[in-house]
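Researcher: Please predict.
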Amino acid sequence: MVAPEPEDMHLEDAIQATQSLFLRELPSHVCVGPMPRGAIGPLDLPLKDLDESSPAIKHYVDLILDIPKDSVDVVSLKAIFRDQAWDELPAFMKPKVRPSFETITQYILLPQSDGQLCLLKHVYITNEKVSGSYVATLLHGTGREIAWGNGNKKVVRKAFQWMLEQLGGTQFRKFILTPEKKKQALASQAPEEEGWTFLREHGELDKSDLKQLRWIHFHINRDDSPIKGWPERLVQKALDSLANDSTIAKLCERYDLTISDVDPEVRSLLEIIVPHLRDHALWLLGEPGKGKTPLGRILAMMFSRFHGGSGTFRTSNDLDFFKGIPFTKWVPALYDDGSIGDEETKKKKAFSDVGDDESMTRARWTSAKFVRNQLRIVLDNTYNPEQEPEDSMTEADLVVSHEDFLRIIRPALGTMSPTDAMAILKRSAFMIFGKKHITYRLPSETPIQAHRIRYTKASIILNSSRPILRNYKEGGPIPLDYEDHTAWETAWLQEAIRKNAEEHRRHLEVKAQEEQVLAMNTGPVVKMEAEEYHDGNASLARETARDPIDCDIDRASAGWTNWDAPLSVPVKQEPRVFHRLRTPPRGIISLDSPSPAKRVCVRPPVNPGNLPGLPRVSEDDDGMPAVGHLLDFDFPDASGGAGYRDVCLIVSLQNLGLPVTCESDGPFSISFGNTLLKPFGVQLCHHDRPFLQDGKYIVHDAEKMHFFSLVMHEGFVQVIDNASVVQVTLTFLKSLLEDANFTFYKCQVVRCPIRTQKDVLGGAGVLSKNVYTTHMKTCFCGHRSMCVGHEIRAVVYTLGGECSTTVRTMRCNSRACRTTFGPNFFVENGNKVNTAAPEDVSDVLFVNMKVGFAVNYLKYHVGLEFRASVPARAAQDVYDNVFGHSCKEQQFRKLHGDALMYWLTLNELTPLKLHKNIVIGQELSPESLKAYDSYLHEKIFPPSTVQRAKVFEVVGDGHTKVHVKCGETTTHQGRPRKNGKSKPYGHGWFMMVNPRDQRILAVSCMSQPENNPIVHSSLLTILPKYKNLDGFVMDRVCGFAPKAKEDSDLKQIKYWAIDHFHALRHKQTCAYNPLYVKRLGKRFKGINLSAAEQVFSWFRNYARILNEARPLRHSFKVLYFVKQHNMAIRFKKATYLNKHQRLPKKTSKSYACSKKVSKVMKK
């Protein structure tokens, strides 16, 4: 193809056509077409062949011919461009190799004469200039570049865009040519409208000395006057209205900034606050120049549109100026630049009461009336900065007490009473913009703590948005993308409200569950008279009648028992008795079931025949021992029979009101106690938290091998040990919780059917179920019922060997669906798609209908992969030698690898809500990997806010030992292969490491040998998160720093240095050698500059398990291992890292003879 010269007439025509046009970039791609082919073809464009020797290219064109028409779906492409899901673009529309720089691309699809398509891609490189040889590696078709000629490049660029638009076809444009907006000519006004305009512009408002009256009489009688013949009363009323208009808050109908122009840190706070502004006011106080007024106006316009308005608000610096205005909820009211502290208290309370049906403030001549749900904002510089608490850079300093918060806002509240101040805090949300913090408080009628974030920026408005604000103040045109930003703003507000509603719903559910558990674990509190209490505790009174309580008695001997009291007989109880039980722990248990014929007791009754002179056995005894009658030691035997021994668990359960009994000796275990409790639907669950909630507990003392009971209700703690009932303090309870000898078990109601399980030690090789089926209750199609499909014999691999089980498949009853569900997946087009969340997988994870793996097995082997780099072949060999299994060698390795990957992705992608996209045994989707990568770099890899402030330097390095399998990589270093083919793998990974704790801050895959663009992009990834980072260390920094110092994006880094190991081989004159440059040596003194080498000495071991893995699986596991490494660093468990050895000090004595000595010897 012969490219036309710049002097071609087509180019001249385009330049002539675009003289009065401006080239603008669109916020997102716009699809135009399909259109018929235009008058201009690709051959008519001012293009020339790509010069691969060119050192600097900013624009290039990739022309791809003969694309099958069936391979292009325009509807799908529109969705991809709308969602900006660039990874979903067809391969021919993406660069052949992922570029290391930012680009803006326009796509034009043109029909060919043979029915196929031609794609023309215009690529603009935004931030740098790239060599032609590198551009050639990105092309799918024929490379071209713009023939600029001798003309002005901006003019030719406009002409080239115009010619692209004339090509026709289907175009996805990112640039547009627009004319300058001209002021529209005013339409001819009606005579009546001219009269009103004349009154507004020339009307006399001064009534002194009859000026206004004389002006009216003159103009209504003047022939050429616009108001000739108008009634004098009408003109008088119009002038009075204009005079009063200066005392009313003006209506603002335009503001060009939106919520997207606010700093993201502040926007994250607003996500918490704005849902409350539907029925609460907002007070924005603090330092001047922080951007309070723009923020208030942004919120006002946003809520005006949210309530159905067109984006309007009224603002005033005095509450009196709101008088007489008919407000609606789509016209917010802003009190700005006034003195809110001097306003009357009743006016401030009325202005803040957004949730009231109607709020009124009385002004001098009339009243201001506000309506319900109308947003009202107070903006004032009044606050008390001296009362802000000190910040020692700890998490606790980010919480502000209620008293400190009141002192901070006291100047804005004025002299109102504390009661009125709480009324304001109940009606309003607050944001205080201090010099170093932003403090915020949500509305609450009770004294609550406020919170704050550290914020030292000069303004909350983004620097990139300041030209928009300047254009608005100067009266310029509305930005072209304003509607797009307002649409995004509306979606952002709706999402914030949805999140708040979801959080509120979750809070109510948790609160309801806590109340339900409290009601379940504690009986009702019944008020009774003294006589009723005496009658109900007669047996306890008899026990303590003979022996008064001594305050000085030892606590260990306090459990004294009256042996002359009659003992009751244990009775087997009916199920569900516990559900009807409502008596407190010390009350007498009354049961309706008869006593069994065989009466077996712990100790025989002392008066079995009710002989005279001995205590009688009451007929009202319920057959259950009272508190203290069933003791944990040998009982004296009066009749030759053996007593029970070691029954403290039974006693403790009975002391909690649980009607259990046993006729044998102990000791008893918790599992045996759960067996006794199963008929009542109650179980003892291990409580491993460092605090207790209200409820009933069994406590085990490991030192004495003894059980006792504990009841906690509303802060009162009662310990019941045999006959001893002691009220203890929370301090004593805390000491029990911290003591390793005490183990707590909580009594909880089991709502699901109780299955019989084996009570064994360990149990890794024992399954808890005989049949496994899906956890799904309904199908995805909405059909509410499913039927049983088949029962399939399956094998489960556990840490104890193979186990056999049964998988029961389920099928949807809908004839149009018939989807088959396995235990944790459903089958779609032969693929097994995950349906489970981690909490749905109890003990076995199935990779197909016939094979599953125990969860403990998966956790164990995932840990081995991370800690010991154990490959699947080693796991298969060991498993075969120890247990022997029937699975084929290759098949087991594949299932083992698929199961580990399935388990990892299930747990890692659940926080991103992407776990339902997992296809078992298939490659991870690029979208999921990209989301996981972004999630880790934004949320997981960075340390806490306090620790981020302690990151002062970073060490960067690349490593090629662990590399991704890939057939589309650039040339590798070293000797090429004999067959001339490129090595089928990538170039390793590049990492940024914090040298102070070896935490990895960023990791990226290198698709080309380590070079400056890779280092540059990695630095840009971490610099915004670490404000105190000013030092960068790398082995070849002397080849990167000279260019990096000229980059304004890297101006934060002040110190560039080589690590100590490589510095030994660098020249003494090297400006970046810390061994010879005192400034660098002092800056990096005592810092481990070999941190990256330490990390890579561990990381290289993964080559054996990752280099042969599929690319996406390889990348996912690298990210996961980096996450696990950071967790090990956090908990000080990274024992796998080689210890850092500092350079030895230089010896004070030389090994060879000095020059002076050698000279003397020669003489």
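Model: The two ends are 85 Å apart (CA to CA).
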